Amino acid sequence: MRTILILLSLIVVTTAAAETFEYWPGARYDPSIPGVEDVLGYASGDRITWHRDTIRYFETLQEAAPDRVRVARYGQSWEGRELIYVVISSPANIARLDAIKANMQALRDPSATSQDEAERIIADQPAITWLSYGVHGNEISSTDAAMMTAYHLLAAENDPRVSDILENTVVVIDPMQNPDGRDRFIQRYETARGLLPDSDRISAEQNEPWPSGRTNHYLFDMNRDWFMMTQPETQGRVRAVQEFYPVAFVDAHEMGSNSTYYFAPEAIPYNPHLAADQRASLELFGRTNARWFDAFGIDYFTREVYDAFYPGYGASWPSYFGSIAMTYEQSSSRGLVVRKYDGVEMAYRDTVRGHFVTSLGTAETVANNRQKFLEDFYAYQVSAIEEGRTGDVRAYVIPAQRDQAGANKLAGLLVQQGVEVERATAAFRACGRDYGAGSFVISLAQPAKRLVRTLLDPDVPLDGEFVAEQERRRSKKLEDQIYDVTAWSLPLMMNVRSDACGRAVTGDFVAAGPELFQPASLRGPADATAFLVPWGEAPAIRLLAHAHRRGLAVKSTDKAFTHDGTRYPSGTLIFDAADNPAELRDTLAALAEETGAAVTAVSSTWVTDGPNFGSGNVVRMNAPRVAMAWDEPTSQYSAGNTRFVIERQFDYPVTVIRSSQLGSADLRRYQVLILPESYGGYLDTLGESGAENLGGWVERGGVLITVGNATRFAADPSVDLVSIRPEDAFVDEAVTESIPEDGDEEEPKMTVPGTIISGDDEYRTLTTPAEASLDSVGGVLLRARVDGDHWLGAGVSETINVLARDSDVFTPARLDAGVNVARFEAADEILASGYLWDENRRQLAYKPFAVAEPRGDGYVVAFTQDPNVRAYLDGLNVIFMNAIFRGSAHARPVR
Ligand SMILES: [Zn+2]
Fold first, then answer.
1. What is the model's pTM?
2. Comparing C-alpha atoms, which of 787, 370, 409 is closest to residue 596?
């Protein structure tokens, strides 16, 4: 009875609190505009709103106020959920929305819009604010804040800011950037719930199962994807944002529950390619938000974390067209209520309110600075062109090259991001070099100059003072403040040659289009005995994947050969007419068009150099069934991104198997098993018997591919599936020798012998933890050299660029155990881009990136770094897909 009474009083208290909770104290709302509760049946902040209900709410708003609201669809998630943005403004602005968008296009292009013309446009042009929410699906509050923000802008009757905002600005709300991740979070949160929402951090509802809702369906962090645009959600957003060119862009996130609220100005390091006045404007937003937080007694902080150095964040990419882009971070309730470390219970609605207040503060700031922000936007384009016209780099040339598919994709990616790219229709000369027709030219005298430099420069330097501070912190074993990778140069990551030129480049050029690939064709005589597809570009891999799925018979050469005067690289695919159905030619012609891989028909199989097609150096390819570890302890990023590369970039299916089942699974149906990176080791999950199960499968002809730190599992001495071993940090002997040894070991004593510490070096050595690993690296691009004689290196260029993260270094394989098919360059050559600690640079030199070791009838292929990070290391596609397709062709299971 007593229990019931207590529960009842709790409910009363909760309800009473809900009734008095005001998002904007004293606000009075127009009853003709439906609130969240009117449409969804609960007050804003009392539930975590699903995707479908969010859409329903905005559609209802549009019905209630069609003259002030426009809902538009900009894409679809992998799981089929609609992506929308919602435009809110005055009836007059909504009526001329197309003209407003056209005006922004005009301001973006000073070559077509003079200063006078710009001033005329600005006099009567609303400024656009873009508010985007929930790119990380488990950062839940912002979507509910999006609905409250829209409601307030349409219904608040006594907030004088509202009419200013509607008249002087257009507010675009992207309420949910990652619907698949959000609904995944909600579904599992709701599943764990009981009678009352639980605030205990140890409760099931406060602990998300694998994979978290942060990521989309293929487990991408879409807040890293803006310039590579691998995901359909990002592709849609990049298109939509460029229709509007907002002067301010907010990406609303959540951070740890014990924190408060973060808004701009942002932390250092700044990206040196950003313009100084963009940074100055950040403060205007910060001060408005601070004023309201002070008024409501809400804590916040600025500047300490969340930098914008990396250009692939939502809060940085729009900066490169002249927007003021910002991240806002609300401490998360991880559910409907959470208990903070100090015992305070933070309710979901409190967190919704944080984003609601800053959303309105942002629109208010834009309204108050409408003219300034539009003038700054235009001036940004003018100064970009001027810098590009006079700077040290005035053009980039992407020559016609070996990996033309890669060059085409790079050009298309840039065009999709608003970069003007031209394609040469005839040969030309620039900066002392000859270039062929088909080369791409990017003049930097264009509005997108800063984006081009950021994405194409081989290196974007970190600020010297920031670097000095990181080295100081490191010397004290404090964590560094580098938030993400320090290298992202697209030509390096895609292994596409791109030349900087210090002079303007002229020639016969036409505008290049946004296509990422060009269809190819089948050429050669009708009486073909075989069809050849050169290896080494992504389209050939796609063609092989489709050929396997159609059951075509295909062989591949381990050595280069010459046929009819043409040199074919190792790895080249050979389709014999005799082994295949009569319609082979038509099938391959269709595949050439679909995949972009050129196919050559030959009437004779006679080669003039290298192996014949029946040689022992030519292997029969089989269609491997590919399995991959999934679920804990696997890293969701590594697993999802690897699966995406294989399934969506190369159209080949993968079976994912929960790691907990791998140890006992019958793997005979599979020829390839991939272990992605993991948190914690696989050995704990698989156990020794599970490891033996995998070992037996490899011995019988399986191909085990370990990715990044999963190589530690294969290299564990008790597993011993690969001979290489992870290294400790190198310790200079000269320094160690000076450390006094412990006294005799007979009796444990209460004290140790006295020492004299002679200097700073010795002090540092004595205070360094024993068995230290190298300091972790945020992410740099390292050069590796490839052994093209090995099947794993077939078709791969001589040098590749590897994104190295964390601190792993492995010993090279001895030649009687395996082959180091790709190993890092010497210490003075190794660093291609980014900031790398000196100890790591010296110790990584000559160490392996890709090792292939035979084991019984099978193979282990160990990658010491993840080749599929964010699916943006295109230059590593061939070596990784070789491990799958060529690995299974070289293994010798009983077939
Ligand atoms: Zn986030």
1. 0.94
2. 409
